[in-house]
Design a protein that fits this description.
Blueprint (H helix, E strand, L loop, with lengths): L1 H15 L4 E5 L3 E2 L39 H4 L2 H9 L2 E4 L6 E6 L2 H10 L4 E4 L4 E6 L5 E5 L2 E4 L5 E2 L9 E2 L2 H6 L30 H16 L5 H16 L7 H13 L4 H15 L2
Parallel strand pairs: 6-10
Antiparallel strand pairs: 1-2, 1-3, 3-9, 4-6, 4-8, 5-6, 7-8
């Protein structure tokens, strides 16, 4: 209970200073949507730029749940989430901030030579460098470096040290990537024949086309936990279509392209696809 109260007090203090907060559960990720909001069928929160407002009082829609309203933070449904939370998260973009997440010692060394000094916060494996200003969030802008600002969340790990400075062009430039060529599938996609001796059990080609389109949408609409979303989506596609031989390199390239649009590297895509195949025994 004391830990719950500590988290709530921290959240209320941050909210009072204009920082939108939310509870993070085990794995340091946001709570999943409630049943009424599952799959974003409710239309999402207004600040997610999704159609229609969502009036759900729950801790839904990941980063978009972040709030500065003290009445929401102490409401019963949020109190239940705080009891399960492992830490306090916040929406940097909502507070007019950008966090450069340096995930290891090498990334910290790079930042000290490449970026202007600003407020820093120690993390488990590296540091958060916090700048005043907002930009789009991008994962893996270079090895061990993520940018968290608009439409993203970060863990609150303390006030940090140093004077916060304005968001520099050097950080903005990290988000400007050369367009990646459409990746090819990891070699071809040969899979063992299923019970149908290799014959596709699906009733029409439109079934596969619809499945690939839904998988692309699931990846591109992910607002957090992109790595996990990509892997789970690959796993779902392979579990449904992987044994009949109907997947082509073009289908896989579409999934990889969707993942790269969310900041994943081609290497991450190849690894996630290979791991999903191994998990399914393909």
């Amino acid at each position: 209970m004391s830990e719950t109260l500590h988290s709530q007090r921290t959240a209320l203090s941050l909210a009072a200073s204009g920082v939108p907060v939310l509870p993070l559960r085990r794995g340091k990720v946001p709570f999943g949507n409630c049943r009424q909001c599952a799959g974003n069928v409710c239309g999402g929160r207004p600040n997610m730029k999704a159609p229609g407002p969502c009036q759900c009082p729950g801790v839904c829609h990941a980063w978009a749940a972040a709030t500065t309203d003290p009445a929401v933070i102490v409401a019963p449904v949020w109190a239940a989430a705080w009891r399960r939370a492992v830490c306090v998260g916040y929406h940097p973009g909502g507070a007019g901030l950008t966090v450069v997440d340096l995930d290891n010692a090498d990334a910290v060394v790079w930042a000290r030579t490449a970026l202007p000094a600003t407020r820093t916060v120690e993390t488990t494996r590296g540091e958060h460098w916090i700048y005043q200003g907002t930009m789009r969030s991008v994962n893996a802008v270079r090895p061990g470096v993520d940018i968290k600002s608009a439409m993203a969340y970060a863990r609150f790990l303390g006030p940090g040290t140093g004077t916060m400075t304005a968001l520099p062009d050097a950080v903005r430039a990290l988000a400007v990537k050369e367009p990646s060529p459409a990746p090819s599938a990891p070699q071809a996609v040969p899979v063992p024949a299923g019970a149908g001796n290799g014959e596709c059990p699906h009733r029409a080609p439109a079934y596969l086309a619809r499945g690939i389109a839904m998988a692309e949408q699931r990846i591109t609409s992910a607002s957090s936990a992109v790595h996990a979303t990509v892997y789970r989506t690959f796993l779902a596609v392979l579990s449904r279509h992987g044994r009949c031989g109907c997947l082509t390199d073009a289908h896989v390239a579409r999934l990889f392209t969707a993942a790269q649009s969310k900041g994943e590297t081609a290497r991450h895509c190849v690894d996630a696809w290979a791991n999903a195949r191994i998990t399914l025994g393909l």
